[in-house]
Each structure stands twice: as structure tokens, then as C-alpha cells.
Amino acid sequence: MLNKKSVDDINVKGQRVLVRCDFNVPLQDGKITDENRLVAALPTIKKLIADGGKVILCSHLGKPKGEPKPELSLAPVAIRLSELLGQEVKFAADPEVVGPNAKAAVAEMKDGDVVLLENTRYRAEETKNEDKFSEDLASLCDVFVNDAFGTAHRAHCSNVGVTKFVKTAVVGYLMQKEIDFLGNAVNNPERPFVAILGGAKVSSKISVINNLLDKVDTLIIGGGMSYTFSKAMGGHIGTSLCEDDYLQYALDMMKKAEEKGVKLLLPVDNRIGDDFSNDCNIQVVKRGEIPDGWEGMDIGPETEKLFADAVKDAKTVVWNGPMGCFEMPNFAHGTEAVAKALAETDATTIIGGGDSAAAVNILGYGDKMTHISTGGGASLEFLEGKELPGVAAANDKD
Fold first, then answer.
1. Assembly and interactions (predicted)?
2. Which of 285-289, 296-300, 352-356, 366-370 has the lowest mean pLDDT?
């Protein structure tokens, strides 16, 4: 999965190039409120324009569930992309995505022109990966480029199905970067290799913990999922998040870590609240000593120091999931302490998308990280060691 052809391995002059981008941006009253994903797609688009390709862009936006919804149209994206690229991005407004507008626009294209298709999820076949829509998309192009890592863990028409009907299928720069950083971190890391897992649930990270214990030198577990471990060890966790079905699993993972010689670090203290709000009463208690009626909301100061020390000498760090309820300022201390520790280390630091990406950006440490993944679910499945259909579908290097 790590050895794929990219846009640097092909010549697209005079060719029609369909590029699957991730333009799933937040919209408010038809205006884009965060354009990071558009900016991230520019290097691949500019490369294809410069090489004389006829560039046809496609993406999904939100969940229209197989029918045209005007509020989920990609029209605002075409307007903003035109400004960012400094040239017109022609919008093909077909409710069926590949319709008369798209066909006419593509037929008129000159080398270096750009067309954007309508939201791929307007078609019910898209998420079912059915051939009819895949063939429609393939009929517009000679070459396919997948640059949407955020959907790489799903097999849809616009990222996987289309490759059955197009001979040349490669990855874009954004996708290549994800493969390089996440793939190499997991399969060929510079050591010591430390992984930090947080977030609410053990159940959503089971395979990740299991896979990483075979690869890391140190595994740090914080966030809501740590209370399941705390309870499994006989601790008292009050009303904290806990998945009772996974208590034995938590003990099994601790045993596996011991057998593998992996250092498994869990919180030694917690910031707790008597209500799930920023303004609740707060105290710090030792792990496993949370009184009834209180819940764990963040790691405590001792744990912050323990976790920060653990990444000091690391050479590779992968972080997925916050240490607490970072959206509430009083419970963002733990997540911020970890972000600060990563910003100060010389290690290659990789943030695995989703909430952890949001957290480092909100807390102002985004530019200090080596790589922030653009895919939440996709990066998690990468860390699980799963094959991602969207990556697997691209041509292998010879």
C-alpha cells in the first residue's frame, strides 16, 4: 500500500484528468467557514494545470443521501477555488453529477482548464460503489488522481469504483504525504516510537491499541478511554465514561504490553468535575479515587508531567485523540500539555486527524507539528494496519 504511483510519475499533457479531492468543507449561509481542505488540495491541482492537463475536480460535501440538496451544492467551492487558483473554475451544475453541463464543459476544455463537478453524493450509487456511476465518471477522463485521504477508508464510486474503468490511477500530493508519514511511522518508524491515544471510547480504538502494541516502544493512553482501564484495575471512577464490556480487554492489553516490553502509560491523576460543564466544581484526585457523583474530565498535573517526559527523547510520535474535554477551557490543560510537549520535541510528530487535529489547531500548536492528517477515520484505520480501499485502488509503482 505504500508504493503507489503519484502525479509525479505520469505525463498528463492534453489528457483529461479526474481528480478526487476532499472539499467536504463547513458552510454557513453558503459561505465556506474553514478553507483548509481547499488550500491543501492546491499543490496537486496546480501541478496538473502546469503540466497541461484538463483538470476535472470532484468531491462529496456533507450527507445528501443520494439526492440533490441545494444547501450541499459545491457551487461556493468553485467560486473560492477560482480565487485561490487565479483562474476560472467552471462549475458543472448537474443534479446527476455527470450530466449535460459536465459533458459540455469537459468537451470544451483546453489544456490547463479546470472544471468542478457537483457533489458526488447527489448520486445514490456513490456510497454503494455501483458500476453505473463509476462508469459515468470514468467516461469524462483518461487519467484518475485520488487526493482525498479523508475518504480513503471507504470504497465509493468516486475514489475506488472509477479505477476499474480507467487505466491510469495515481495518488496526489496530499495522499502521498499521508502515505509517507502515517505509513512510515507505523511500518518503519525511527525509534523510540511513542503513540498517544485519547478520545472517549476504547471500543473505537481496540484494533489500534492491539496493532500499535506490536510496533511502539511506549503507548500512552489518556482521555475518556483511560477510565475503562482504571476501573479494570479496581479503581473507583464515579460517573466517568466507562465501557464495562471492555474491562477484560483493558487487562489483556496491559498484559500484552508487559509481555512485549512496551511501556504502557496511564494517567496517575485526574481533573474531575461534579457536572459536565466548564463552570462545575473542579478538583484533582489520584487515579481510581474519583468519588460518586463526580466524573473524570481531563488528565491531572502529575500525568501531564509524566506524558510530557515520555515524549522528550522520542524520535517518532503519533497522536490520536484528546486527553480530556478540550472544548471546555478548564479541561483543556491535559491536551494542551501534550501538544506543547510535542511542539518542543525534535521527533517527527504526526497528528491523526479528527479531534486531535482540531485541538492542536485551536490551541495554536498546528504549525509546530510535522504532519497533521486530513483524515480522522482513515488515519485510525491506517494505524490499525488495515488496507485502505482508496489507496489500494491506485496503480503500484513498477
1. Monomer.
2. 352-356
Type of residue found at 226: S
356 is in an annotated binding site: yes
CA distance 368 to 371: 9
24 is in an annotated binding site: yes
Strands (E), the chain: 16-20, 27-28, 31-32, 54-58, 89-92, 114-117, 143-146, 168-171, 193-197, 218-221, 236-237, 263-265, 269-273, 282-286, 289-290, 295-299, 316-320, 348-351, 371-372
* Cβ pair 315, 189 in contact under 8 A: yes
Q: Are residues 354 and 237 in the same domain?
A: yes
Catalytic residues: 37, 201, 354, 377
Owner of C-alpha cell 510537549: 341
Is 123 annotated as belonging to a binding site? no
Last residue of a domain, one of 173, 196, 219: 173
- Residue 120 has a CB neighbour count (10 Å cut-off) of 26
Which grid cell is 345?
A: 520535541
8 A C-beta contact, residue 245 and residue 273:
no
Question: pTM of whole model > 0.90?
Answer: no
Residue 1: which pLDDT band, with cuts at 50, 70 and 90?
A: low
Last residue of a domain, one of 145, 173, 201: 173
Cα 104 to Cα 12, 88, 108, 350: the distances in Å are 21, 16, 6, 43
| Whether residue 280 sits in one domain with residue 163 | no
More confident residue, 207 or 264: 264
Cis amide bond preceding 267, omega within 30: no
C-alpha cell at 104: 459540455
